[in-house]
Design goal:
397 residues; mainly alpha; elongated
Length: 397
């Protein structure tokens, strides 16, 4: 019987499959073929590896023992937790069973006590929210009143404006404008809070009413001041321009200069600030009216393109036009011609100067041209209705 064939030698792994530390180890101890052919040269390596294995073996046993103890400890803890959970579930089953111990009290807790506690928690949360909103509004209205008082003090000359009289006029005007914008921003912040209150807590109508009363008082004091300052600035610019008749003695009006185009840089800066402040105040007023009308379920007219700053330009020049209108009671075509000429001569300057200011004030869907033309038409139609149509109607009766 032939002996079994010898077992094949194991194949060495490919060099590319070895880890970098293994490749470094082989390169260090087996640099040439001569190192492989002499077994005696590998005796130090063999003894070194044997010593290292004998050192690592106790560490391995110790690590395995610690892991085993840790796993057993966690198993006992998990078993204990499961036993406690099972006991708690059995107790709960006894309490909630129809004939269990304490079932009546448990049903009373579920049906009465828990709903009462939930209602009390909701009441406390609502009270906390109310107090936070009231404190926030009080702080905003306080800032608003401080800024408004400064603006009004600059005009009335009371004790708060004593230091302002020493400063240069330009510095006073700049500080007053900054405080006015600060007051308008505070009113916008108040309006944001009130819109949120109206949407989420409409039952807080007393809080809404009290804040509206205080803000309305401030607006009622600030608005005439802003309009008076704006009108004084227009007068200093030479607005309205004079409507001069032609040199040949006829009643026709010659070309009209536009002070808005001719104003100097410092005057232009002051007018820009005043125009933007007036637009911001109107935007705030529109927001407040929209909120109050929505609260009363009244739809607001969104087609109105009236701008206060444009009306302040139209009103004084319309007054001068009415002087000529009264002389043309029998020639209404002259009235329309004059209104057309004034509207046309100023519309380019109005668009070039005021439209960028409207855009800077962030008034959406507002056109300086449209507001100018609409205001001129409104003034002309109002004059005709008041002076001629009503008189003609009375004469007919």
């Amino acid at each position: 019987m032939e002996p079994p064939p010898p077992s094949p030698l194991p194949c060495l792994p490919n060099v590319t499959e070895l880890a970098p530390q293994h490749v470094g180890f082989l390169d260090q101890h087996f640099r040439t073929k001569h190192d492989l052919s002499h077994e005696s040269a590998n005796l130090p390596l063999f003894s070194s590896l044997s010593q290292r294995c004998s050192e690592l073996e106790p560490l391995l046993h110790s690590h395995l023992a610690k892991r085993t103890v840790s796993w057993i400890s966690r198993s006992f803890k998990a078993k204990s937790s499961l036993q406690q959970l099972s006991l708690a579930l059995r107790n709960l089953s006894l309490r909630t069973s129809l004939y269990g111990i304490g079932s009546k009290r448990f049903r009373w807790v579920l049906s009465e006590e828990i709903p009462r506690l939930a209602n009390e928690m909701n009441r406390i949360e609502s009270l906390r929210c109310y107090l936070e909103t009231a404190v926030q509004l009080e702080a905003l209205v306080g800032d608003l009143e401080d800024a408004a008082l400064f603006v009004l003090a600059c005009h009335t000359g009371n004790m708060f404006s004593l230091k302002l009289s020493i400063s240069p006029i330009s510095e006073d005007t700049a500080r007053k404008h900054d405080k006015l914008l600060q007051a308008i921003k505070a009113m916008n912040d108040v309006e944001e809070v009130l819109v949120g209150v109206l949407k989420l807590h409409p039952q807080w109508h007393c809080l809404l009413k009290s804040v509206d009363i205080r803000v309305d008082k401030i607006i009622g004091a600030l608005r005439p001041q802003v309009f008076a300052d704006h009108r004084a600035l227009l007068v200093s610019l030479g607005w309205p321009p004079k409507l001069l008749p032609s040199k040949n003695g006829s009643e026709h009006i010659t070309g009209i200069p536009n002070p808005l185009v001719l104003m100097r840089e410092d005057k232009g800066r002051s007018y820009s600030h005043s125009f933007i402040a007036l637009c911001a105040l109107q935007h705030l007023q529109n927001r407040r009216e929209e909120r109050q009308l929505n609260n009363n379920l009244i739809k607001r007219d969104t087609q109105n393109i009236q701008l206060w700053a444009i009306d302040e330009l139209v009103s004084p020049i319309a007054s001068r036009m009415e002087y000529h209108f009264t002389k043309w009671s029998e020639q209404p075509e002259y009235m329309f011609a004059l209104a057309y000429k004034v509207t046309r001569d100023f519309i380019t300057g109005i668009d070039d100067v005021l439209q960028p200011l409207i855009d800077k004030a962030r008034l959406k869907s507002c056109s300086a041209k449209e507001a100018w033309v609409a205001a001129m038409i409104q003034k002309l139609s109002g004059f005709l209705e008041k002076k001629f149509f009503l008189c003609s109607l009375k004469d007919t009766k």
